[in-house]
Design goal:
This protein is mostly beta strands. The protein has one helix at residues 138-145, and strands spanning 5-22, 25-31, 33-41, 48-49, 55-56, 64-70, 82-93, 98-107, 110-123, 128-137, 157-166. It is built from one helix and eleven strands; from the N terminus they run E-E-E-E-E-E-E-E-E-E-H-E. The strands form two sheets. It has an eight-stranded antiparallel barrel with strand order 1-3-6-7-8-9-10-11. Strands 4-5 form a two-stranded antiparallel sheet. Strand 7 and strand 8 (98-107) form a beta hairpin. This is YceI family protein.
């Protein structure tokens, strides 16, 4: 992780794509607007490492990733067109080269659990470049939040691809 502080994504330094899958076939792929993204790294003076190499932090000492997405819904519908993905727990893997984010996707006022895997492409003291995916079960998401990919677009799962440079 970079040094403690709050980091944002500059305009044009991100990419978000939503893909609907029906079995092994992609049925719809669309770019989604990232209206805002931030990374808040808390100030930790002393970090204790456990056997796996992960930094042991309390719940308030976890880094928080926040992605604000726009234009998710079908072009003709205004419902569920905005979503916010906020991490609740961040766990490093492979010596910090991969991050697993347990997050909540807020869509239409309803929180839906999501698991986002991020690969750290580049890391410095003042910036972090990540690429990752979240796979969501489409039917459960539709029942819980009312989100629809489109009237004529069958899907069994969704993949949300995120690439962002926090600086």
């Amino acid at each position: 992780m970079p040094r403690s502080g709050r980091y944002a994504v500059a305009p044009g330094r991100s990419f978000v794509e939503l893909t609907g899958w029906y079995g092994p076939l992609p049925t719809r792929r669309r770019r989604v607007t990232l209206t805002g993204a931030s990374l808040t790294v808390p100030d930790t003076d002393v970090s204790d490492e456990d056997v796996s190499g992960a930094v042991a932090c309390g719940p308030s000492e976890q880094p928080v990733f926040r992605f604000e997405l726009g234009g998710l819904g079908p072009r003709s519908a205004l419902t569920a067109s905005r979503a916010v993905l906020v991490s609740q727990h961040v766990e490093p893997f492979d010596g910090g080269r991969r991050l697993r984010l347990l997050a909540d996707l807020e869509l239409g006022g309803v929180l839906f659990p999501a698991l986002l895997w991020l690969r750290v492409v580049e890391r410095a003291d003042d910036r972090l470049l990540v690429v990752g995916t979240a796979r969501l079960p489409y039917r459960l998401l539709r029942r819980a939040t009312g989100f629809r990919l489109g009237r004529l677009c069958p899907a069994t799962r969704l993949r949300l691809l995120v690439a962002a440079e926090f600086s």
